């Protein structure tokens, strides 16, 4: 006698959510279009209401569906950056995932600087040079760490904006904010002079490389500037 084992409930819900997701994307629904109700989904796909609800909850968590009382489900086109923003706190609970994100940020910024070299406007380059000067003044005093961190964020944020991709720039802002709390600061309260001078030099060298439209030099300096992401051990916030 052969025993028939039932598929786990969560597996059925996952499979159904994938089928619904594919259906939504294939049908090219507009944002705000009405879809079906949970009851209609359960009937159409021949599953229990519980399975239909779990599948819908998965898609709602991804921002692809939104439930409306007495109306059913609405199709949504989520902002990928917003979805990432919701997922990052969970990823920050794992050192392995944080290490993966560190590598992702490194690849993102090193890759984006090439686009910045090609797309930066003269006005943006002037703004970057101004930030480098402001950073030098603060870093030379070796005080006001909060202002120093903010200038560093603005400097890197502007380079990502130079790429011409708002998605890349927004992703960098999320990751930079995450690593400000997840990684130990690169510097002690008082930096060694050679380390401090090197960081200041790297900022000016990045400005110069972008101004000269020198892709290889810009990538080389950015790799050196961000190598701490590949070497530091993340802390769990």
TrEMBL record:
Transmembrane segments: none annotated. It comes from Gimesia aquarii. Gene3D superfamilies: GntR ligand-binding domain-like (1.20.120.530), Winged helix-like DNA-binding domain superfamily/Winged helix DNA-binding domain (1.10.10.10). This is Putative HTH-type transcriptional regulator YdfH. PROSITE patterns: HTH_GNTR (PS50949). CDD domains: WHTH_GntR (cd07377). The keyword DNA-binding applies. Pfam families: FCD (PF07729), GntR (PF00392). Residues 10-78 form the HTH gntR-type domain. Keywords: DNA-binding, Transcription, Transcription regulation. GO terms for molecular function: DNA binding; DNA-binding transcription factor activity. It comes from the Bacteria.
């Amino acid at each position: 006698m052969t025993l028939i084992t039932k598929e786990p409930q969560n597996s059925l819900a996952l499979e159904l959510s994938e089928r619904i997701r594919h259906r939504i994307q294939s049908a090219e629904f507009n944002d705000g279009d009405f879809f079906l109700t949970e009851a209609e989904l359960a009937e159409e796909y021949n599953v229990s209401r519980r399975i239909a609800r779990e599948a819908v909850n998965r898609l709602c968590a991804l921002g692809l569906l939104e439930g409306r009382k007495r109306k059913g489900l609405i199709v949504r086109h989520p902002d990928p950056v917003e979805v990432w923003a919701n997922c990052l706190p969970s990823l920050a609970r794992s050192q392995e995932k944080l290490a993966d994100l560190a590598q992702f940020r490194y690849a993102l910024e090193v890759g984006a600087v090439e686009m910045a070299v090609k797309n930066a406007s003269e006005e943006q380059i002037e703004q970057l040079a101004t930030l480098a000067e402001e950073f030098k003044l603060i870093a030379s005093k070796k005080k006001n760490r909060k202002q120093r961190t903010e200038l560093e964020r603005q400097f890197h944020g502007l380079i990502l904006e130079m790429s011409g991709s708002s998605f890349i720039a927004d992703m960098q802002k999320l990751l930079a904010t995450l690593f400000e709390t997840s990684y130990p600061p690169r510097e002690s309260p008082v930096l060694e002079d050679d380390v401090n001078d090197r960081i200041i030099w790297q900022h000016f060298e990045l400005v110069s490389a972008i101004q000269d439209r020198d892709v290889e030099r810009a990538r080389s300096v950015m790799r050196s500037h961000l190598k701490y992401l590949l070497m530091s051990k993340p802390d769990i916030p």
